[in-house]
Write a structure and sequence with these properties.
Elements lengths: L9 E5 L4 H12 L3 E6 L2 H9 L8 E5 L5 H15 L4 E4 L16 H11 L1 H19 L5 E6 L12 H21 L4 E8 L8 H4 L2 H7 L15 H8 L10 E4 L7
Parallel strand pairs: 1-2, 1-4, 2-3, 4-5, 5-6, 6-7
Length: about 260
């Protein structure tokens, strides 16, 4: 057994049926972790699970809308019924802002919808996971990993995307607060801040030649990120190797913020 061996561990990945979430799920499963992919699209869930068939980690899928607390609690109960434990929770599900509407024209409905998924959704899944992890810790089994997918939008000004940016900045603060509160239970909490990554959410802008021409020169790696670029950090955070690493914001952006 190595320090990165995840055999016997169980992780939930919300939005794990595509993009960064799928990259995380595939890496965890290949390291022996049993995983549960949560998403709203059953067909997409099954397609994602199929990419990991025959691997060392078992793959479970659940229909779940993270904006709905009851849906989250039902999904968590189903995973616990199947595996008996949840060691890691990757709150990755989220929606993009599109950057098409000026702030002064932002509707109340758009604002609330963004927060319902991107922030309330993290609250719902982290609370369900933390409740189980702290109860398990009370019986002497102290191990838990809470990981949220944030964004560089939490650090930089993002025109016409203020509602999205606000949710991601809040996620960073939430992770820091939970890291302090839950440390006594052996639970760590960290955020991952992706740069420009190829996914369904970014497909429109990454297909815009003008946008690519402006952004690519600012990325030292001279490429956009891929979902697989998040596998390593996911395995590290899920493993025993990161037991003393908490309250951090991991920037994974090909050097974009440094240049």
């Amino acid at each position: 057994m190595t320090i990165f061996d995840l055999s016997g561990r169980v992780a939930v990945i919300t939005g794990g049926n595509g993009g960064i979430g799928l990259g995380i799920a595939q890496a965890l499963a290949s390291s022996g972790c049993n995983i549960s992919i949560w998403g709203r699209n059953a067909e997409k869930n099954q397609s994602a699970a199929g990419t990991m068939a025959g691997g060392p980690g078992q793959v479970d899928t659940r229909i779940c809308d993270v904006a709905d607390a009851a849906s989250v609690n039902d999904a968590m109960k189903a995973v616990l019924d199947r595996y008996g434990r949840v060691d890691g929770c990757f709150a990755n599900a989220g929606i993009g802002g599109g950057g098409r509407r000026a702030f002064i024209d932002r509707t109340e409905d758009e604002w609330r919808k963004m927060f319902a998924t991107n922030l309330d959704g993290v609250f719902h899944v982290f609370q369900a996971a933390a409740r189980h992890m702290t109860e398990r810790a009370a019986s002497g089994d102290r191990f838990g990993r809470l990981v949220a997918t944030s964004s560089l939008a939490a650090l930089f000004g993002t025109a016409r995307n203020e509602h999205y940016a606000a949710t991601k900045a809040a996620i960073n603060a939430l992770c820091r607060a939970l890291a302090v509160e839950l440390a006594r239970h052996g639970v760590t909490a960290n955020a991952i801040l992706p740069g420009w990554i190829r996914s369904d959410m970014t497909a429109r802008v990454l297909a815009d030649e003008k946008f690519v021409g402006a952004v690519m020169p600012r990325i030292p790696m001279r490429r956009f990120g891929e979902p697989g670029d998040f596998g390593g950090i996911a395995v590290y955070l899920m493993s025993a190797a990161s037991s003393y690493h908490t309250a951090d914001c991991f920037v994974i952006d090909g050097g974009y913020t440094a240049f």
